[in-house]
Design brief:
With 128 residues, the chain is mainly alpha-helical. Helix content is 84%, strand content 0%. The chain contains 4 helices and no strands. The longest helix is centred in the last third of the chain and has 77 residues. The protein is elongated, with a radius of gyration of 33 Å.
Length: 128
């Protein structure tokens, strides 16, 4: 049998690994979002392929496009807000890291000062 000629990544389309079992493939194919996408595709074909339905659709298309653009803008704003929250958390983490480094250096300095003070005390006691 000759190999199938295709340029599509069917595993990616079904969201399964290359080693997926037949049951995994069936579950992915029958997942709700896949069924909804297929039903939407069929509906689009039925409307756009019928002259009367297409004329009616073309009348309401501008409102559909506006609603779609508004929805995309809302999603983009949500993504922007999430990104800003992440930036804020990253900045807080950077500040915490800097504070930790400063505290570590201060602790090292205090430890060195303690050792020096102990050495001075020992030396003074020997001389006394």
């Amino acid at each position: 049998m000759a190999p199938v000629e295709t340029t599509e990544d069917y595993c990616a389309i079904l969201d399964v690994p290359q080693t997926a079992s037949t049951d995994d493939i069936k579950r992915s194919y029958h997942r709700p979002e896949a069924i909804l996408a297929f039903q939407t595709l069929v509906s689009a074909y039925q409307i756009l392929n019928n002259t009367e339905k297409r004329i009616a659709y073309n009348r309401i298309w501008p409102q559909i496009k506006v609603r779609h653009c508004e929805e995309e803008a809302r999603k983009a704003e949500e993504l922007r807000m999430k990104a800003m929250e992440r930036v804020g958390r990253l900045r807080a983490l950077d500040r915490a890291q800097l504070n930790l480094e400063k505290a570590t250096k201060a602790a090292e300095k205090a430890s060195n000062n303690k050792k020096k003070a102990e050495e001075v005390l020992k030396k003074a006691m020997r001389e006394f």
